[in-house]
Design goal:
The complex is a heterodimer of chains A (306) and B (386). Chain A is an alpha/beta fold and 306 residues long. In chain A, 37% of the residues lie in helices and 27% in strands. With 386 residues, chain B is α/β, with parallel strands linked by helices. Chain B has 2 domains: 2-39 and 183-382, no CATH class; 45-177, abc type-2 transporter like fold (3-Layer(aba) Sandwich). Chain B has a 4-stranded mixed sheet with strand order 4-1-5-6, with helices on both faces. Classes of the chains: A alpha/beta (306), B alpha/beta (386).
């Protein structure tokens, strides 16, 4: 079982949302699609789930081109916004959707019980959705995506806005679901993605700019150890200039200036000396291994997106 | 089965958030009650009239005669079949005061009996001349003609009785069906019944708009349920609510004394068809709105058109276009409630079962409106990649 894409492209007027994208996902691992706002993540999910037809290229199932109608049957969708019926109970929502897939009343009720237990909402089966907490609604959102028992599931920002307990629960659930089906998630939370995803696809301006496991991405872009300097935000610009003058790949964000130690750049002692000579008071210094966020920012830049 | 699943889910939602359906079902009877309260005893309106009685009187065989006073008393004796007086007659001193009363909406018309009223009547009795009487008021007022006719008829009867003259025309009024014995309350009932069903527009529009607002419409389009199954399931429930609104309103009217000259069951197909057209407009509203609040706001426009231009609330002449097979086709005939009110009036007031033309028009228009609404909603919210 694989869900894939070969050269899928989708434009909206003059805007190319996704350009010639290739990807492949299979059970046993979670593929995370990352990208800044407007990178094409949602359009990619829409094409993979049969909501939108690509202008060119094909979405594939088991290596064979699949039509949108077929994909809608094969791929469950858990949207970013919670989409539930506020006045129906959890069990009624799941049973109602299940009946639309052709199951009888009692089979639908059984399926509702199974699914609600699976997402940890068994005790809330008779509660109306409008009475549930944000975390519970997210889990109900996932349960509704699973009513047809689809062999593939795409989840758009499934952990957005959740408390840590709910995050852990949903992360574990996603891991379990990936055991026997294709699972693709999008997220803005890179730390969370490192925990939940086995493979990562980074999109920017509709293009796939990198793909691999988190380790592969870190190794491939060999960004070197990072040195974070904390200073007064008013002095960050001066400090950045001093560090960059040493030939270091450096960035500033708020009260923090980050410089990379690596091939072609200065060593740690040279860097510290340059900072000292700049006269900028530094409040704290620490070194660390490069993170996925560093790779992400390296590939997509620090400029704000719409 | 999918249609039933959608209908079951919609019904459940309506029960748990019953304000709109209750409004739709409850407003009809409320307005029936209101009409009944406006027309006591199911009765009829009494129109206020002021009289400037300048009659100086005359003497006949040594006896003083003041025919003006008798004429005023005669106007006061005019009554509806229910016994309710037709005119509330008050005397004022002069025309200036009469004008003030009319401008202040305390009177619909004035009658001026001249100083020579009694003398003229006596002369007419001897076969010469006519009796001068002036009547006036706001000629633009819709009730003025009714009052003017009543006053003229009352005075004419009095004058004929006093002079012994016979009328030149021997008019006989022939009431069609049971219209002769209809109370005003009963005349308003068909319009109120259609109004009650018209309120369904809000329930239908918001039922669909809430699917759009919550995003659940996106879930539904991914399932194998067809647009017909989805819209059909929602429509079935709304039609049931529409029927309930009609039945509760009619039941209330009957309890308050409403009598139908024709078979009541004929109202059922009229209601179902009217509901369909109203739901069609609800779909149209839902197609172009993205939230319940928007839908509620926008629905006021077609609802107003439907109710005020169709003759549901009051008679509207419209714009006659042409005639087909003896039926005048009016521009406003594109509004289904117009045919619904006509058909209900035919059944209730005239006892007529010959409502084929109105039913045909209602069917064509209602199916047309429903298909238009369904197409618009489908195009805007249910279209998926093929």
């Amino acid at each position: 079982m694989t869900l894939g894409a070969r050269g899928i492209t989708r434009s909206y007027g003059a805007l190319v949302a996704v350009a010639a994208l290739d990807l492949e996902a299979s059970p046993g691992s979670v593929l995370a699609v990352l990208g800044p706002n407007g990178a094409g993540k949602t359009t990619t999910l829409d094409m993979l789930s049969g909501t939108t037809r690509p202008d060119s290229g094909v979405v594939t199932w088991n290596g064979m081109p699949a039509e949108p109608r077929q994909l809608r049957r094969l791929v469950g969708v858990c949207p970013q916004t919670v989409q539930t019926w506020p006045r129906l109970t959890c069990a009624e929502q799941v049973a109602f959707l299940t009946r639309l897939y052709g199951l009888g009343r009692s089979a639908a009720a059984d399926r509702a019980s199974v699914l609600l237990d699976r997402v940890g909402l068994g005790a809330k089966r008779d509660s109306q959705a409008r009475t549930l907490s944000g975390g519970m609604l997210r889990r109900l959102n996932i349960a509704l995506a699973l009513v047809s028992d689809p062999p593939a599931l795409v989840l758009d920002e499934p952990e957005a806005g959740l408390d840590p307990q709910s995050r852990v629960l949903i992360r574990d659930l996603i891991g379990e679901l990936a055991d026997d089906r294709v699972v693709i998630v999008t997220s803005h939370d890179l730390a969370e993605v490192e925990r939940v995803a086995d493979r990562i696809l980074i999109l920017d301006h509709g293009l796939g700019v990198a793909e691999g496991t988190p380790r592969e991405l870190l190794d491939r872009f060999d960004l070197g150890r990072a040195v974070d300097f904390s200073t007064d935000p008013a002095d960050a610009g001066t400090l950045l200039t001093a560090v960059a003058r040493m030939g270091a790949d450096a960035t500033a964000s708020g009260d923090q200036v980050t410089a990379r130690l690596g091939a072609g750049g200065p060593g740690l002692s040279a860097l510290l000396l340059a900072v000292e000579r700049s006269g900028v008071p530094v409040l704290a210094v620490h070194t660390r291994e490069p993170s996925l966020e560093d790779v992400f920012l390296h590939l997509t830049g620090r400029g704000m997106r719409e | 089965m999918k249609l039933l699943a959608v209908a079951g889910k919609t019904l459940r939602e309506q029960f748990r958030n019953p304000w709109l359906p209750l409004l739709a079902v409850g407003l009809g009877p409320f307005f029936v009650l209101l009409m009944w309260a406006f027309f006591p005893s199911g009765g009829s309106t009494t129109y206020p009239v002021v009289v400037v009685n300048s009659d100086a009187g005359t003497t006949v065989q040594g006896i003083a005669v003041r025919s003006g006073d008798h004429a005023v008393a005669g106007l006061r004796t005019l009554t509806h079949d229910t016994g309710v007086p037709i005119l509330d007659v008050r005397q004022v001193a002069d025309l200036d005061q009469a004008r003030e009363e009319i401008e202040a909406h305390r009177a619909v018309a004035f009658v001026e009996l001249p100083e020579a009223f009694s003398r003229s009547l006596q002369a007419a009795h001897q076969g010469t001349g006519a009796v001068p009487v002036r009547i006036g008021g706001d000629l633009g007022s819709p009730v003025y003609p009714v009052v003017a006719i009543m006053v003229a008829d009352g005075l004419d009867r009095f004058a004929r009785q006093e002079t012994g003259r016979t009328a030149l025309l021997d008019l006989t009024e022939v009431p069609l069906g049971a219209s002769g014995s209809r109370t005003e309350f009963e005349l308003y009932v068909p319009g109120v019944l259609v109004f009650a069903i018209g309120l369904m527009m809000f329930a239908a529009a918001t039922a669909l708009a809430q699917e759009t607002e919550a995003g659940t419409i996106n879930r539904l389009v991914r399932t194998p349920v067809s647009a017909a199954g989805l819209l059909g399931g929602i429509t079935v429930v709304q039609v049931l609510v529409g029927l309930a609104a009609g039945l509760v309103s009619l039941g209330t009217a009957v309890l308050l004394g409403f009598r139908s000259a024709g078979p009541l069951w004929l109202a059922l197909p009229i209601w179902v068809l009217t509901s369909l057209s109203v739901i069609g407009l609800g779909l149209l509203v839902a197609a172009f709105t993205r939230s319940v609040a928007q839908a509620f706001l926008v629905a006021n426009f077609p609802f107003g058109l439907f109710m005020f231009l169709s003759g549901t609330m009051f008679p509207v002449r419209g714009v006659p276009l042409f005639t087909i097979a003896g039926h005048e086709v009016n521009l406003l005939d594109v509004l289904p409630p117009r045919h619904a009110v006509n058909a209900l009036t035919s059944v209730f007031s005239f006892g007529s079962t010959s409502i084929g033309y109105e039913l045909l028009m209602l069917t064509v228009l209602s199916v047309g409106y429903f298909l238009l609404g369904a197409w618009a909603f489908h195009s805007r919210h249910l279209r998926v990649a093929r």
